[in-house]
Amino acid sequence: MASVSPLLADGPADNQAENVRPIPPPGIDLDTDPLDSLRSKATLVRDRWQQLVEAAASPKPNTTEMARLLDLEPEVLVFPRAVEMSIEQSIFYSPKALADAERLLNMANDRIDRIAAGASWAEVVGLETSNKNQLIAGGYRSKIDDSFQPYGVVVPANVNAVDALPIRLDIWLHGRGEKSSELAFLSKHSNDPDRYRAGNEPMPESAIVAHPYGRYSNAFKFAGEIDVLELRDYLQRRVAIDDRRIAIRGFSMGGAGCWQFATHYADQFFAATPGAGFSETPWFLKVFQGEDAAGTAPSHQKMLWQLYDCPPWASNLRNLPTIAYSGEIDRQKQAADVMESALSEQGIDLVHLIGPQTAHEIHPDAQQEIARRLDLIERQVAPGVPRNVHLTTLTLRYSRMHWIEVTGMEQHWTPATIDASVLTKPAGDDDQIMIECEKVTRLRVNFDAGQWPGKPSGRIGVMINGNQVVDTNTGPMVGSDRSLAAEFMFDGTWKVATDDSASIRKRPGLQGPIDDALMDRFVFVLPSGTSEDPVVEQWIQDESKHAMDHWRLHFRGDVRVVQDTDVNAEMMADQNVILFGDASSNQVIAKLLPQLPLQWTKDRISIGTNQVSRAGHVPVMIYPNTESPNHYVVINSGFTFREYDYLNNARQTPKLPDWAFLDVSEGSTSRDPGKVIAAGFFDESWQPK
Question: Mind listing the pLDDT tens digit for each residue in 580-638?
């Protein structure tokens, strides 16, 4: 799939917005009898699981057992969910898939038996001490929407993943597979290990390999990005993984994901091996699709390309050893060539291995050479944090690098940079943190317990841009656990930061754009009333349904939905709220409206100096929820790319910024939810520009 299916999306035929082929593609026609049988067996699995839960709750709740069952539940129910979604969406692609579905349901029943007998997680999933390759397929519960997301793990024959000795973890990001349903993914990773053929995938001798599903085919962006991080954290709770020895790897679409993780999360891996995956948007679409995105996209979309385009973030690879791979005659060599040029401008010479006369696959000799180099890099991994750190960021979504964090920027989407060092005098009595930064208004130094590499006690001086902000008489003190934390702000001069937690400003995790709200826990809030404008009312009904349907279709999620009359303070306290409607139909919108920089009167809708008539128009926007300051409120939008963008992963970028006005009188299209009349970003204080 990695070597073939990308070609389906590489051509002008997929530039026809009026004739968009469906993604996922429709499956084969099947008789109703086998589908009805699978439905019944999936229901039986769910019933058996429910009986196990009820037994733990009655007659007197066993809280320990209930917690164990809740913990193991995804490892069972991920299987009937996969089967049910394939039935629901008619995405069986071969008669063999029916047998695969039956086998997965049998696995679920077997796991219920093991759990009922008191099995541990390792025993439930079949992880054992052995001298053979092992495949594990399972699921975890996502924080975003409580859905059970699938994963795969490969344990090579000579790796013992049961004992408590820390081991290396390679995270492998798969290629584009438009037919890679949950059913197909779980089937592959639960097959006979002796028949497993890695192909482009690594089979290291000294590491287990985690395979995130990535919520289908989105190049591990948005919820797909969070899937990778959630799976890593889930496995670290289950297996003795050395968090200093985690590598990020991938090929094709997975290579694109690898570039993104390497440049955005460079401090969380010991190495990266991106292979043949796009690294930016406009040039890739020009080369592969013949699409002049740079000439046709509106300015706010071009600005937002920088969220995932990797060249602007290239300097972060100073923190992360990186080995790129391309086939000599692979068109997708373009991606590494682009990054090679961007890195050269930063004084970094990209190691770019080339498979001779090789198209879109990894040459066996290159695979061995990558493995050799990775092993050498792994041997050099040192304890502790580095004394010298560099960070480039264009958004506070990606604000940290090791012990330095940008907590305020002059302007989003303009690069902010920090170079920070810990300097220790030989006598050990004049330790200094030296910081040089640009386009930064607020920053934080944070060494966790045991991480401070300097003197074990006393105060530490901090110098920013050549000015001594605090010295060894006034600076932050080293904690008894060897931690150190301090925050500084620029107010004409750099100084110790004051508490501004009550102020509304863009800060890490609360910076927009609209799509950011669906990268954490959220709930859809539908209106109980009716809009006074029939055109707007119809659009609200259609667009809210589209947003929910496509969250399930494209990000493979379970949408949590409530009505506005059911929303309370507790519900808003731990999640983002996605509100559909207007002030006359949605009570939550009406309640929050006075606290938003949005005027929505009987005649006009306005944000700052931008305004439209109310008739036939709706606003879409993201803003901090003033009743739950650490979360967002979103009005009238799900994720912002649409069906046209499903055809090529490079197109899957944010299409709307912090706010927009839509003319919805003619409804939506495969590219837009309505005609965009105006759109823009809020400033760093969440005010209209």
Answer: 999 999 999 999 999 999 999 999 999 999 999 999 999 999 999 999 999 999 999 99
Burial of 419 (0-12, 13-18, 19+ CB in 10 A): middle
Is the per-residue pLDDT at 283 higher than 50? yes
Q: CB within 8 A of 210, min separation 6: which ones?
A: 151, 152, 153, 169, 170, 171, 172, 231, 232, 235
Q: In percent, how much of the chain has pLDDT > 90? A: 90
> Do you find a cis peptide bond into 202, omega within 30 degrees of 0?
no
| Contact in structure between 348 and 314 (CB atoms under 8 Å) | yes
Element housing 116 (H / E): helix 96-116
Tokens encoding 478: 């080293």
Distance CA 540, CA 618 (A): 9
At 196, give phi and psi (nearest 5°): -70, 130
Q: Do the Cβ atoms of 196 and 154 come closer than 8 Å?
A: yes
* Whole-angstrom distance, CA of residue 660 vs CA of residue 119: 53
Token pair recorded at residue 605: 């809708």
Q: What are the pLDDT digits (tens) for 424-474?
A: 876 555 799 999 999 999 999 999 999 999 999 999 999 999 999 999 999
| 3-state helix vs strand vs coil in the chain, percent to 5 | 35, 25, 40
Residue 7: strand, helix, or coil = helix
Full-model pTM: 0.96
DSSP 332-399: THHHHHHHHHHHHHTT---EEEEETT--SS--HHHHHHHHHHHHHHHHT--SS--SEEEEEESSTTS-
d(CA 28, CA 278): 31
Rounded Cα distance between 141 and 396, Å, is 26
The pLDDT of 166-184, averaged and rounded, is: 97
Owner of token pair 């196990």 = 52
Nearest to 651 by CA among 663, 662, 661, 640: 640
Q: Report H helices in 117-222.
A: 121-125, 182-188
Backbone angles phi, psi at 374, to 5 degrees: -60, -45
- Residues across the chain: 689
Strands 323-327 and 351-355 come out as parallel
Rounded-to-integer distance, Cα 614 and Cα 618, Å: 7
pLDDT of 650 reads 96
Which residue in this structure is represented by tokens 């826990």? 521
Q: Are strands 388-393 and 576-579 parallel, antiparallel or unpaired?
A: unpaired
